[in-house]
Amino acid sequence: MNTNLLTAPPLSLYIHIPWCVEKCPYCDFNSHALKAQIPEQDYVQALIADLDADITRFNLKDRALHSIFIGGGTPSLFSAKAIESLLKQVLSRFESKHDIEITLEANPGTVEADKFTGFSQAGVTRLSIGVQSFESEKLLKLGRIHNVNQAKQAAQLAKASGVNSFNLDLMHGLPNQSIENALDDLKTAISLQPEHLSWYQLTIEPNTAFHSRPPKLPQDETLWEIQDQGFKLLADAGYQQYEISAFSQQDKQCQHNLNYWRFGDYLGIGCGAHGKITDVASGIIQRTVKVKHPKGYLDQNREPMDHLITVSQDELPFEYMMNQLRLFSSFTLADYQQRTDLSANTIAPTLLQAQKKGLMQCTDSSSVDGKWQVTPLGHRYLNDLLELFL
Predict the structure, then answer these.
(1) What is the CATH number of the domain that holds 383?
(2) Per-residue pLDDT, 5
(3) What is the β-pairing status of strands 265-270 and 11-17?
(4) Reduced to 3 states, what is the DSSP secondary structure of residue 167?
(5) CA distance 385 to 354
(6) Is residue 168 one of the residues assigned to a domain?
(7) Of 236, 259, 282, which marks where a domain is finished?
(8) Is there a single domain that holds both residue 109 and residue 246?
(9) Does residue 229 sit in the same domain as residue 337?
(10) Where in the sequence is the domain holding 30, given as residue range(s)?
(11) Under DSSP, is residue 234 helix (H, G, I), strand (E, B) or coil?
(12) 375 and 232 share a domain?
């Protein structure tokens, strides 16, 4: 390894809150249907103990914090008071810029939406609202507990809450969805003027209810048409596509997710949370996985770390590209070296191969030292492109 090339990436923090009202049939995240009152205070205490253990384990006292993302589950089930306590304790342990991006995922149900101002006052700067659809029939099939009016009201409350920006999560390719249905959903989302839109196709994941009982999804031709026309709608409305399924108004990209995709570092605390940390001195990159079930995670006699995995040199090229290739922005071989500590030769031949296939392009046609970017063909056949780096 060339440890003189390695630099410490930005450090983000992901906080997982695992509880939700009901488990959606398409969801493969680590979430648990709520069967009793949430143990807020105990869970915040466990999160901070988990964080302190990671800070000590990875010697992170001098690392600045780039962003925070509170995901789930449904984090908006927590009270604003609990979120405020959590954030105060987290921020006291790091240096961070005054305008650090702090995102909290929320569901549009009235109970959660009414808390938005409280979350903003607690320190949250960005809300991400899981709408998924604005059609009643589709919401029922997706197992969502909110209705169309609540979804629209949540966006309005987010705008008035005092946060800097909000995101709407929206799916397409839903069961029996027509092109017109999908585009009407998107038009409704755009009309609510979110600064950011996550617009992605429903996929059937293993270990979900939909996998056991698959719904009838649109044909590939319909899916391509939805995507093609949707991209035009978003562009005409002033949303720039900066990642496979992420669109934002100018300067409103999700900084936390950008750090993931640029192969930055992130701590993961909470049930089943994943992390990735770089040791600049040794050149070692490690991945972490925390105890998955709330009962085990809340057990004070149990270590929250479930798995600590060292990423091998052979795995690093694919790990880097799996994230970077989701983006529409370019990268250089110097970026690759600074994040992986590997020589440019470990990836340059594959980049040239992808270029010959029309899947990637380079601003410097005479060498590999220019800015590399995925072509439209490469984005369309992203899985084929990624396979080249295995």
Answers:
(1) 1.10.10.10
(2) 66
(3) parallel
(4) strand
(5) 7
(6) yes
(7) 259
(8) yes
(9) no
(10) 11-259
(11) helix
(12) no
Rounded CA gap, 285 and 111, in Å?
41
CA distance 124 to 127: 7
- Whether residue 3 is contained in a domain is answered as no
Number of Cβ within 10 Å of residue 287's Cβ equals 16
Contact residues for 75 (Cβ-Cβ < 8 A; gap 6+): 15, 17, 83, 104, 105, 106
Mean pLDDT score of the chain, rounded to an integer? 94
Task: Let me know if residue 306 belongs to a domain.
Answer: no
Domain boundary among 259, 287, 303: 259
Q: Which two tokens stand for residue 305?
A: 């770390």
**Is 205 found in the same domain as 84?**
yes
Alpha carbon of 27 to those of 115, 204, 214, 343: distances in Å?
A: 24, 9, 13, 39
User: How does strand 126-132 pair with strand 196-201?
Assistant: unpaired
DSSP 260: H
Rounded to whole angstroms, how far apart are CA atoms 273 and 280? 23
Q: Are 157 and 113 in contact (CB under 8 A)?
A: yes
Average pLDDT over residues 4-23: 89
Nearest Cα neighbor of 247 from 185, 161, 192, 168 is 168
Q: Are 304 and 50 in contact (CB under 8 A)?
A: yes
One domain for residues 200 and 332: no
Domain count, the chain: 2
Whole-model pTM? 0.95
- Rounded to whole angstroms, how far apart are CA atoms 20 and 355? 45
Q: pLDDT per residue over 68-117, tens digit each?
A: 999 999 999 999 999 999 999 999 999 998 899 999 999 998 667 789 99
Retrieve residue 250's tokens: 């100018």
Give me the CATH number covering residue 162.
Answer: 3.20.20.70
129 SS3 class: strand
Q: Calculate mean pLDDT across residues 245-268.
A: 98
Query: Given its phi and psi angles, is residue 176 left (phi above 0), alpha (psi -120 to 50 degrees) or beta?
Result: left
Please tell me the distance from the alpha carbon of residue 237 to that of residue 125, in angstroms, as a whole number.
Answer: 24
Please give the pLDDT value at position 348.
95
Residue 72 half-sphere exposure toward CB, CA atoms < 13 A: 26
| 169 within domain boundaries | yes
**Do β-strands 305-310 and 284-290 pair in parallel, antiparallel, or remain unpaired?**
antiparallel
Residue 261: how many other CB atoms lie within 10 Å = 19
